[in-house]
Design a protein that fits this description.
The chain has 261 residues and is mainly alpha-helical. It has a domain of 173 residues: Hypothetical protein af1432 (Orthogonal Bundle). Helix content is 54%, strand content 5%. It has ten helices and two strands. Strands 1-2 form a two-stranded antiparallel sheet. Helix 2 crosses helix 10, helix 3 crosses helix 8 and helix 4 runs antiparallel to helix 5. 35% of the residues are buried.
């Protein structure tokens, strides 16, 4: 991914840390640009592809959840600063976080991942029982998890090269690559001295995991699904204890976004 002026920075622009925006309106605008047939470039050849349906799109839900969480984090940062109960603001814009959330699973559309996605759709991952069935399911899941995270940046490049300059932000590809990893893994990965945007990536991870826990769609067949918000919140808190989620951001999501205690 080519890094442009959107690199590792905390901008000094007065409107960078946004605390008063219409998340639904911004999400609708972003989605309108990426839904339906899209021009892409594959190895220098112009082509077309459809990644998001206008009728049903779980990634739109994730984008709105991630945007709302990002907004609440920034509001908490501005209200309380770095004093007691305070946290630093996010180091990318809310728009970047929302765009990354929409595109975080784009790698599933790569030709190397598609056959395994189809196989998962044909396999009753929730109904099959026994150790052999569990091993088969886990084998497929590991392939999809690894493959779509590795191929996500490639798919983003295909869109970017077809006149999508907003995708020059390296944060977008980093989310596609690392959103499946635990917060503690991203923060402390030794070979990279931690991922620069570990907190910001975790905003997308929390939104994505919560949607997976509470949705009924077929794309979530491999997750515990259709949970009540309070039960999903309990799982998020367990995830904090296990190092999957950043503690402060997870609590902001539960208390400020979901309105739970």
């Amino acid at each position: 991914m080519r890094a442009g002026s959107e690199g590792r920075r905390r901008s000094d622009l007065p409107d960078f840390v946004q605390t008063d925006i219409d998340i639904d309106s911004m999400a609708d605008g972003i989605f309108a640009r990426y839904a339906g047939t899209q021009p892409i470039v594959v190895e220098g050849i112009a082509a077309e592809a459809t990644f998001f349906s206008r009728d049903y799109c779980p990634d739109l839900r994730v984008m709105k959840l991630a945007g709302e969480l990002a907004l609440r984090v920034n509001q908490r940062a501005v209200d309380k600063g770095r004093g007691p109960g305070g946290i630093p603001p996010l180091r990318v814009t809310i728009r970047e976080i929302m765009l990354a959330a929409l595109l975080h699973d784009l790698g599933k559309h790569h030709e190397d991942c598609a056959p395994f996605i189809d196989l998962m759709a044909q396999t009753n991952l929730r109904g099959d029982t026994g150790e052999d069935a569990a091993r088969r399911a886990e084998y497929l899941l590991n392939i999809v998890r690894d493959g779509h995270c590795r191929k996500g940046p490639c798919m983003i490049d295909r869109l970017r090269d077809a006149d999508r300059p907003e995708l020059n932000s390296p944060f977008i590809a980093t989310v596609a690559r690392s959103h499946g990893d635990d917060f503690e893994a991203n923060r402390g990965r030794k070979e990279k001295q931690g991922v620069w945007w570990s907190r910001e990536i975790n905003v997308v991870t929390i939104a994505d995991d919560y949607d997976a826990m509470t949705s009924e769609g077929p794309e979530r067949a491999y997750k515990s699904k259709n949970l009540a918000p309070v039960d999903a919140a309990s799982l998020l808190r367990r995830g904090v204890a296990a190092g999957r989620y950043e503690p402060h951001i997870a609590e902001i999501f539960i208390r400020d976004v979901l309105g739970l205690e």
